[in-house]
Amino acid sequence: MLAYSAPQIQAAYEHCLTIVRGHYENFPVASFLLPKQLRQPIAVIYAFARTADDFADEGDLSEQQRLQKLGRYETLLDNINQAPNDDLLFIALADVIDQHQLPIQLFKDLLSAFKQDVTKHRYDNFVQVLDYCTRSANPVGRLLLHLLNENSDENLRYSDRICSSLQLINFLQDIRQDYEENNRIYLPLDEMQQYGVNETTISQNLSDSNMRALITHQIGRARQMMLDGSILGTRVKGRFGLQLRMMINGGLQICKLLENNRENVYARPRLGTLDWISIAGNSTLRRFIR
């Protein structure tokens, strides 16, 4: 571990917390449920993932420029313990990786998925979609379990199911946005064909019976994956266990809302007060919404 001064490390963590405060995504960074000692490390992981994801998605950069920025992050990861760094995010990241012995490969997996977002816009089948989820979502859950020292092989498998499910649910919420803003379709092309759906269906925002049937199939699979992993919410104890159950039940509740979008499958669900009461109540009682 390279030696950075205490003021450097403190400034680095503050930089990451500033990135967190500037975004509102559903990510357990600032939650009061998190153990206090983990809030800063989780914020650093989020800052890394958020900024790298922005390279792939945000602004008017060319494909080459996006890949160059992501490539720089990969180089900084490779040299995180070998060369001094003036990048505040990577100073904080080096400290977190060293303190918690986090696998660097998980951060590289995230970068691999973000690079793929730049170059790959269609997926032939669900195997390809799931492979993307393995690198875009699952590393986050695995890193959190490493922080908690709960990273048994069994827990990691449950976490993968939850994280992949959350990624799939996110795709279903953003069908229109992904297509219109980034020309991406994460629905498997073979399943689209099976249900009589094509790209015109999406480009014209059609919610015909074929599209509804396709989306119902996608929701059912995402829900089952979430339930398959939900036991992790009872295996992890304390405040983070409650936070985890809230995330699981939040995903399951969004599945219910997505199913109700019969007239417009592209509408993004919004969790209301009653939804949050159901999520909080079931999570406190260690139950899962079905």
List the SSEs and their pairings.
Blueprint: H1 6-21, H2 36-57, H3 63-78, H4 88-100, H5 104-119, H6 126-136, H7 138-148, H8 153-173, H9 175-182, H10 189-194, H11 199-203, H12 209-229, H13 232-235, H14 238-259, H15 273-284
Can you describe what's shown?
This protein folds into two domains: 102 residues, Farnesyl Diphosphate Synthase (Orthogonal Bundle), CATH 1.10.600; 171 residues, Farnesyl Diphosphate Synthase (Orthogonal Bundle). It has 15 helices and no strands. The protein is 70% helix and 0% strand. It is mainly α and 290 residues long. Helix 1 packs across helix 2, helix 2 crosses helix 4 and helix 5 packs antiparallel against helix 7.
What can be said about this structure in brief?
The chain has 15 helices and no strands. It is mostly helical. It folds into 2 domains: 1-102, Orthogonal Bundle (Farnesyl Diphosphate Synthase); 120-290, Farnesyl Diphosphate Synthase (Orthogonal Bundle), CATH 1.10.600.
